[in-house]
Structures are given as structure tokens and as C-alpha cells.
Design a protein that fits this description.
By secondary structure, the protein is of the alpha/beta class. 48% of the residues lie in helices and 12% in strands. The longest helix has 33 residues.
């Protein structure tokens, strides 16, 4: 058995190239170059689309409410409720501190918890729209998106007897049509600049540490904090949010002397 040195292949390749007309070689090289450029542009476009749809602070697909230049203010917001076990405990803690927060509610859960939704509203907290079923709105048709938002607002307004003005897309994911539909329905799209990752944090302290690190970064940038925690979970009406409740209590204690806690309507009125 003999082993090839690769020399014969080189000769064959050179022979083939040499047999081609210069114009043909140039044309083929141009095609390869164009293909490379197209692939690079496609990669950049995909990366840009992903950033625009998923980055909480991106404004590329349209403006969303994030946080003004008020570094001494915190908008404490809760997603995925109402939760019959943990939301009432949060309401008690907030009442003890005389703090108004914002609750973005899932419509199908709110529909089963009218008394709790009314209690939240009557305590002075802001109620927001978090869709009916918590879908990924980047993959949802425009008609389904409109139905998710319309149905939720109608349910919440019927419960509390007041208009719903704020909307937070599930996971923060949106596309241009999402924001356009929201505005057509009179809703202000809201994202955030800190998320506590409390749905999978192993302890309340980890939530607290994460939030405080990012609050320090917001302060350096001269920005208020728009903080997302979760009083519920989109997969279950009774998700365990004990760590969130404990973290919220500590964060309120830590920042009561240095920050003002505000509902989101303080930033748009």
C-alpha cells in the first residue's frame, strides 16, 4: 500500500485552474466573495433582529418605557400573577411600607382571582396587561397578539372598573407589530433594566445580590431602576414565590431611606 503525498492532487488542481479562462476564474471568485458577503450580512441581520426583539432596553423596534434619569427612584414591578398564595403576602409587605408597585397580570389567571385583582387595585397599585396566556409574541400572529392583549385588557378593566394603560410583553420579547398593536389599543409598552431572575434563584439572597449589583450600575448611568420580580409563574397559578417575597421585603428595607418606590404611571404622567 502506498500513501499519497498530496502532490498529484495539487497538480490536478493547478491543471484545472490553468485550463480555465481568466474571466471564468474571476467570475467564480466574485461569486464566492458575494456569497461570503451575503452570509455575513445575514448573520448580522439575524443578530440585530434577536437583539432588538429580546434586549429589554433596545429601542430598535420602537420605544418602550424603561427608566428615566431619576437614579433615586425604583419602579417595583411584578409579573405573572395574580398568585392566590404569594400575591397577598406581597400586598401586606407593600402596605407596611406604604409603597405602590405595578402588577402585570396574566389574563387567564386574573379571570379566576377577581377579589385578589380588586384588592391589588384598591390598595393603590397599578395593574398592567401581561397577555392572556403568556405567549412568545415574536412568534404569535398579529391577529393572535391583538386577541391576547384585547381580551386581557377587557377582563382586567371589567374587574377593577378602570382603564388598563400599560403592557409588558412576556419574556420582554416583541417585534414591531407587537408594539404597534399595543399602541393601537391604547397601551404603553414597558420593559425593564433589571430582572431579578427570581423564578429560578436558589435563594432570596441571590436575588437581592443580583438586584443590588445592577442597581449600582443604573446609578452610575444616572438611571432609575425598573425592576422585574415575579409574584406568579406563567405555567401555574400557584407557583412557589417564597424567595421573591423574602427578597422583596429585604430590598424594601435596604432602599427605603435612599430611594423612592414609584408605580410606572409616575414616569408617564
Amino acid at each position: 500500500m502506498s500513501w499519497s503525498t498530496g502532490r498529484s492532487d495539487d497538480v490536478s488542481v493547478n491543471h484545472c485552474i490553468g485550463s480555465l479562462a481568466p474571466q471564468t476564474i474571476a467570475a467564480r471568485m466574485s461569486v464566492l466573495q458575494i456569497s461570503g458577503v451575503v452570509a455575513a450580512i445575514a448573520g448580522l441581520a439575524y443578530g440585530g433582529y434577536t437583539y432588538a426583539s429580546r434586549s429589554a432596553t433596545s429601542q430598535l423596534f420602537g420605544s418602550t418605557l424603561v427608566a428615566p434619569k431619576k437614579p433615586d427612584e425604583i419602579a417595583l414591578t411584578f409579573d405573572d400573577g395574580p398568585n392566590p398564595r404569594w400575591t397577598p403576602q406581597l400586598l401586606d409587605i407593600l402596605a407596611q411600607r406604604n409603597v405602590r408597585a405595578t402588577f402585570f397580570l396574566i389574563g387567564q389567571f386574573a379571570a379566576t382571582q377577581h377579589a385578589l385583582v380588586r384588592r391589588t387595585h384598591e390598595a393603590g397599585h397599578l395593574i398592567g396587561n401581561h397577555t392572556w396566556t403568556h405567549p412568545n409574541l415574536a412568534r404569535t400572529s398579529t391577529s393572535s397578539t391583538r386577541e391576547e392583549l384585547t381580551r386581557t385588557s377587557a377582563e382586567l378593566e371589567q374587574i377593577i372598573g378602570a382603564p388598563i394603560r400599560y403592557f409588558r410583553p412576556p419574556y420582554g420579547i416583541r417585534r414591531p407589530a407587537t408594539l404597534q398593536i399595543a399602541r393601537e389599543l391604547g397601551l404603553i409598552p414597558v420593559t425593564w433594566n433589571i430582572i431579578g431572575n427570581d423564578w429560578n434563584a436558589p435563594s432570596a439572597q441571590q436575588i437581592i445580590d443580583r438586584v443590588n449589583r445592577r442597581m449600582a450600575r443604573n446609578a452610575l448611568g444616572g438611571r432609575a431602576t425598573n425592576l422585574v420580580l415575579h409574584d406568579g409563574g406563567h405555567l401555574s397559578l400557584e407557583a412557589d414565590r417564597s424567595r421573591t417575597v423574602a427578597a422583596a421585603r429585604t430590598l424594601l428595607e435596604q432602599h427605603a431611606a435612599t430611594h423612592q418606590f414609584v408605580p410606572l404611571d409616575q414616569w408617564t404622567s
